[in-house]
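// run 5 | inverse folding | seed 20
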């Protein structure tokens, strides 16, 4: 069983930065690939970034490549998303999730709002 809690969201102006955190419970945190997703109003949930269990491999959606950085600290059972040069179109609820073959554990989400 894995429980995920996101934090770090908020209201910022375009061009500013935020760092999201995803704290996980459970001893198997370091065994799984993980990812960040987001869902804007009226849109489907989309993947933003993912990271392998070791942190050695990452993937980014084209829309965030070069601006966002995903990382994890398995000793702290925490995953991060550093978001720089934020744009109004980044406004969404951001979720972290665990991939155990399917994305079957999700956090409750944290709101990110970017004003122009």
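// decoded
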């Amino acid at each position: 069983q894995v429980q995920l809690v996101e934090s770090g969201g908020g209201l910022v102006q375009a061009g500013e930065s935020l760092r999201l955190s995803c704290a996980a419970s459970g001893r198997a945190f370091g065994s799984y690939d993980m990812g960040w997703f987001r869902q804007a109003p009226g849109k489907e949930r989309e993947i933003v970034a993912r990271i392998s269990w070791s942190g050695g491999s990452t993937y980014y959606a084209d829309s965030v490549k070069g601006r966002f950085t995903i990382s994890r600290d398995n000793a702290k059972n925490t995953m991060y998303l550093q978001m720089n040069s934020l744009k109004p179109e980044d406004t969404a609820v951001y979720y972290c999730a665990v991939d155990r073959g399917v994305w079957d554990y999700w956090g409750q989400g944290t709101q990110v709002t970017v004003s122009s």
